[in-house]
């Protein structure tokens, strides 16, 4: 999908994309082709502005490639805020398009993966106080050292196929009491 | 009215790949000589011939000079991908056309280049389609350490993996490295079904010789058991493989001089008349020649040599050439070709084993290639593990 006024550059870009087996649609001045159909979006980095994409800046669902004529700092800043995966300088040449597509796709996937990792780590950090609370409760009720209490929580979480943070966040007083009872029973069995 | 058309011929006839440069230049010159001396063709080429001596800096400077000072709008030339990529921006800037004649690794499609050399779907793929059913799916890959070897081997690897095969080794040598004994030792240990050879020049010749020596004591190294297969070996190189070293090994190209079509026989006669009866002919010479002839025909059709007008007529024309009937595909700017698989014979020429009667369109980015269909076709073709020996 190309969001750019039709001109010789765009004709050349379209021809080259078609040579790569890609079906091309050219829209201007607004995106008319459903975004769900797109694998990539090329857009005019010189003439586009806020509100052109139907998603918040930086949250494009597919790799964005900016087509740049101007290298004015203000334009670069706006383009960068869109979270582009690659860019190409105008005039567009037939060389460079394949490598741009390849790198845009891989940059997009890498940054999606990195963002998912960050989200998951942020979530786990946010739930750390639950872990601390659960450890202290187990230490107190079972009269255990920190490491042993953690070990009980970790294996219980693993049995339920949860992260230790999610598991601890789901514990209420009754659940902690059940963990303590299970621990006491196991200890008695071992002693017996 | 006779049209006078400046044309640039840009080939390195000295330096590391001079063998190919000389072949292509002599082919282009033969085409030029014919056009200029044929009263029925109202075109006279005015050539500017430059020898960049395999230096990148010279390619750029000489090409610029051809376009600026000699007003050439057509340049026939370059052998290596590095030199082609060096002149393409200059050609694009002047909106000229580069006529490129060599087999190459694909993944390019410049609107200012007409490609007459084979891209991978016209060389590696037909070669593997021929090879796998006859010899097997376990390959050992060699290459000189640059883009041709890397990319050819990458495609070869994907083809083998697509049909459940494997690469037992992949080794690269620096240019002109002739120490190949460690390769022989590894092949002896791994026992592949074939050797995919993308070495160039002296490294390649040294490998063929070492392989033949190994074959004297170990029949595994006989070509009927484990052939060396290549995509870039040409006729004039066969004497350099040593007395018997190449015999029985396999090669592919879009032309071999043993092709017995009327157009090929006629071309060989022309070469003999101009360069002597002992002169080898190769795909480089034929494509160099064909570029000039095709350009002349397109100029006649267009009424002038302007690039824009040539583009308008070129893709609708078809050309009878020693390579077979040729068309240039408007979608890719590449020629359709007739891939040939051949075996080096006792007479040290290429004995043709298979010739594609139907032209194969170029698919430089392999977008039409379907690995599943490829696997199905080669697996269903599976024939006896050792090939039928052709006895003369």
List the helices and strands and how they pair.
The complex is a heterodimer of chains A (192) and B (392).
Chain A: E1 2-3, H1 8-19, E2 26-27, E3 41-44, E4 64-68, H2 73-81, E5 86-89, H3 97-126, H4 128-142, H5 146-159, H6 164-169, H7 173-191
Parallel strand pairs in A: 1-2, 1-3, 3-4, 4-5
Helix pairs in contact in A: 4-5, 4-7
Chain B: E1 3-10, H1 18-37, E2 43-50, H2 56-68, E3 74-77, H3 81-93, E4 97-100, E5 113-115, H4 124-135, E6 138-144, H5 147-162, E7 166-173, H6 181-190, E8 194-198, H7 201-217, E9 228-230, E10 250-253, H8 262-275, H9 283-302, H10 307-314, E11 318-321, E12 324-327, E13 340-344, E14 350-355, H11 371-380
Parallel strand pairs in B: 1-2, 1-3, 3-4, 4-5, 6-7, 6-8, 8-9, 9-10
Antiparallel strand pairs in B: 10-13, 11-12, 13-14
Helix pairs in contact in B: 1-9, 2-3, 4-5, 4-11, 9-10
How would you explain this protein's 3D organization?
The complex is a heterodimer of chains A (192) and B (392). Chain A is α/β, with parallel strands linked by helices and 192 residues long. In chain A, 55% of the residues lie in helices and 9% in strands. Chain A has seven helices and five strands; from the N terminus they run E-H-E-E-E-H-E-H-H-H-H-H. Chain A has helices spanning 8-19, 73-81, 97-126, 128-142, 146-159, 164-169, 173-191; strands at 2-3, 26-27, 41-44, 64-68, 86-89. In chain A, helix 1 (8-19) links the parallel strand 1 (2-3) and strand 2. Chain B is α/β, with parallel strands linked by helices and 392 residues long. In chain B, 39% of the residues lie in helices and 19% in strands. Chain B has eleven helices and 14 strands. In chain B, strands 7-6-8-9-10-13-14 form a seven-stranded mixed β-sheet, sandwiched between helices. A five-stranded parallel β-sheet of chain B has the order 2-1-3-4-5, sandwiched between helices. In chain B, strand 11 (318-321) and strand 12 form a beta hairpin. In chain B, helix 9 (283-302) crosses helix 10. In chain B, 51% of the residues are buried. Mean pLDDT of chain B is 93; it is low at 385-392. Chains A and B meet through helix 1 of A and helix 3 of B.
